[in-house]
Amino acid sequence: MPPLDTRVPAVLLRIDRNPFHHGTLGAVRSLGRAGVEVHVVADSTGSPVTRSRFVREMHPPPPPGASDGEITDVLRRVAERVARPAVLVPMDDASAVAVCRMREELAPSYLLPATPGALPERVADKAELALVCASVGIPHPVTLVPDSPAQATDAARRLGLPMVAKWSRPWQLPAGSGLHSTVLVKSAQQARQLYLRTKEAGSPLLLQAYLPPGRDRDWFFHGYADHSCAVRAGGPGRKQRAWPRGAGLTVVGRWTDNPQVRALAERLTGELGYRGIFDLDFRRCGTTGSYHLLDFNPRPGAQFRLFSDTAGLDVVRALHLDLTHRQLPEAAPMLGRSYVVENYAPLAALRPAPRGRELAWHAPDDPAPGRAMWALWCRHVARRLRERMRSVPAAPMPARVGRQAAAPSLSDEEKARSH
Predict the structure, then answer these.
(1) For residue 216, which of 263, 164, 285 has the smallest C-alpha distance?
(2) Residue 13, beta-bridge partner list
(3) Helix locations, 114-232, DSSP H
(4) What confidence tens digit (pLDDT) does each residue in 250-295 have?
(5) Which residues of the chain have pLDDT under 70?
(6) Segment holding 99, helix H or strand E
(7) Which residue in 16, 128, 125, 127 sits closest to 63, CA to CA?
(8) Fewer CB within 10 Å, N- or C-terminus of the chain?
(9) Nearest-5° angle of CA 208, CA 268, CA 284?
(10) According to the CATH classification, is domain 142-209 in 3.30.1490.20?
């Protein structure tokens, strides 16, 4: 692979407060191993990423709910410290949207792909994505955007139950609200209650037809669209395990050839004129066999390191090479290569992997983040168990009748479960 221009540093930006974001560590290692100076703008509280030997410097992130101006001010301060133009890599949707909006203000200090207009914001917005898919003929689940509690209730009749509820702009959900970006709705009343929290959520509620998961139905595609909009690096992957099960992040994935998924990804990004890193999620309909686009993330997916080819190229390295006007190598995909997030799937991390495997946290040349992750994860699990135990009401002591204890009576909920 052509060497990266090590005179040009990289700045990774993550606004989301998530100490277990393994994608950030993957980007740090990918660029750092190539000799690039890596700066990280993210919350460093307890994060294993801070332990990586490939991090040159951690920088304080923007505050939660920061405006575009505040984010720009933070990036300008980082640019002053770095003291030369750097490749900027947004690592979450909030960062990607803000960087797109403030492109002109950031351009003197940062190298950015020439993505047209507000395109990253359009595709990251779940409501807009449905319209984008319709405009280019990409299958997408039937989606309704209710504008009243009655319409939210009626959606259960129109779409059937269960159905999927999503917030249009999940990166705007307030911390500590208990709201989740995606929820499986099992009743019309549940849909109504979610709608009533729209103002709190900060973006519209979407109700979407449910495509059941199943064997070989969940796929993703990671890629980099270069200055000519050609898709380079990356490829299609099959989600073998997710957390939570049936939805959520990929914890075991495999690089698997899928010409249909590739064709959809290339047609979508080509029609839109998209440039930069992208991460697409698909689900195959069990009835029609068509692949429906569920999400378009205008930034690296957390498992992007799955797609490191025979030349060592991944989407983050492709971005750096392209923005520094270096040639991207032609190489063969490493089909069958797997990726495992070991804190969610520890047994999968121990199984043989004859076609190669990358672990999210452990790396022989950078062991400290893996050790830090396990210490942090054990504390996290212990805390969750304590919270769960405190939330369970103590059972009443049985009354004694002679030498026999009377059986405790069932609660209404327990009675319902017993039928």
Answers:
(1) 285
(2) 41, 90
(3) 119-124, 126-136, 149-159, 188-195, 198-201
(4) 999 999 999 999 999 999 999 999 999 999 999 999 999 999 999 9
(5) 393-419
(6) helix 93-101
(7) 16
(8) C
(9) 45
(10) yes
Q: Both tokens of residue 16? A: 């989301």
For the record, the structure tokens of 368 come out as 């400290």
Q: Which helix (H) or strand (E) holds 55?
A: strand 55-59
* Fold of the domain spanning 10-118+214-359: D-amino Acid Aminotransferase; Chain A, domain 1 (3.30.470)
Distances (CA, A) of 416 to 271, 392, 413: 53, 18, 5
| DSSP per residue, 264-320 | HHHHHHHHHT--EEEEEEEEE-TTT-PEEEEEEESS--TTGGG---TT---HHHHHH
Output the pLDDT for position 380.
83
d(CA 96, CA 124) in angstroms, rounded, equals 9
Give the tokens for residue 183: 């929820």
Determine the residue type at 301: G
Q: Which residues of 50-62 are buried (b: 16+ CB within 10 A; e: fewer)?
A: bbbebbeebbebb
Ranges of H-type helices in 171-258 = 188-195, 198-201
214 vs 217, 278, 280, CA distance in Å? Answer: 5, 25, 18
At residue 415, the pLDDT reads: 33
- Spell out the residues 6+ positions from residue 402 whose beta carbon is closer than 8 angstroms to its own: none
All residues at 6 or more sequence positions from 113 whose CB lies less than 8 Å from its CB, including other chains: 225, 227, 275, 276, 319, 322, 323
CA angle 306, 307, 311 (to 5 degrees): 125
Smallest CA-to-CA distance from 320 within 24, 38, 14, 21 is with 38
Q: Directed axis angle between helix 315-323 and helix 22-33, to 10°?
A: 50
- Give the residue extent of every domain in the chain: 10-118+214-359, 142-209
